[in-house]
Amino acid sequence: MTEEPIYCSGCGIQIQTDDETAAGFVPRAALNHEPVLCRRCFRLKHYNEVQDVSMTADDFLKLLSQIANADALVVYLVDIFDLTGSWISGLQRFVGDNPVLLVGNKEDLLPKSTNPNKLKSWIRRSASDFGLRPVDVLLMSAEKNHGIDDVRQNIEYYREGRDVYVVGATNVGKSTFINHLIENAGEEAVITTSRFPGTTLDFIGIPLDDGSTLYDTPGIMNQAQAAHFVDPQDYKKIMPTKEIKPKVYQLNERQTLFLGGLGRIDYAGPGRRSLIVYTAGGLVIHRTKMENAASFYERQYGRLLTPPSHPVQLPVLKRYDFRTDALSSDVVFSGLGWVTVKGRGARISAWAPESIGVSLRTSVIKG
């Protein structure tokens, strides 16, 4: 008689006892434990250690493409702080005709003076640029369990009795969000959560009261995410864990601000004006003259300008030119934060490695 397959209660992968190097491995003796956790999830849960697995981005995308054949609501989580890096390219192709509820996570990292309506408008415009038209845009903090009830109510409204698939790039907080849904319903958390990317390895189905199912899906590994171009120690420095605090600089014409070794913003003018930096505290901000900026970067990359703390080679920086037309504008460096430029008509050049998206938006800070 064939044994029924067993699935890891943490990441959803099918359990196997033969190959220690492959995903889903557990020692045979561990099959007697409830719930069953694969070795990877066990070490992640108890020791905060992350083990590499053999799944590729293509493997993840093949799993995700199954959603197009379902009749369901898709809840799409993005990282407010790293919108470009957390975007799934071609998502509409993978979800087919199913409606998409777009949820911006990590709202708790933004200053309390952030205007939520402006933030939602920016997310909606960004979605449109990527070819996605969500039925609604919501904000929440899965980490702080804030806004979860609003998201839950909207899920019930839009799903109309159908299954629900929660999708997103790695490390956007999907599993933490779903665990809050489960805990608030009186159940124990069942999904492995971590600050490290790539925790969920297969669909994890959670029965709903009306007979339908909520699925946690594998996180798609987007190479534009900040987590993929800095080492783990540096990632902790650029990714804030609490509300970010503004740093105000008065810049004269032809001055430059460096955001560690990962971003640069040149202010050409006109006049003297305020630039306000919103980044994690571990990112070193340094001011210099524009004419010295290139040579200074070559000398101080990975030294004074950190992160990175252990640079291998100098990255090629892509240039973005902007002219502000709002009273207050944000130059956004995806995964690093943003720089608010006060006043209309400022001539700005932003520089970053090509993997870091840079964009301009009307300021989301009130005032």
TrEMBL record:
Every CP-type G domain range: 61-223
Alphabetical list of InterPro entries matching this protein: G_CP_dom (IPR030378), GTP-bd (IPR006073), GTP-bd_ribosome_bgen_YqeH (IPR019988), Mito_lipid_metab_GTPase (IPR050896), NOA1/YqeH-like_C (IPR048422), P-loop_NTPase (IPR027417)
Pfam families associated with the record: MMR_HSR1, YqeH-like_C
Protein name: Ribosome biogenesis GTPase YqeH
Provenance organism: Sporolactobacillus spathodeae
Taxonomic classification: Bacteria, Bacillati, Bacillota, Bacilli, Bacillales
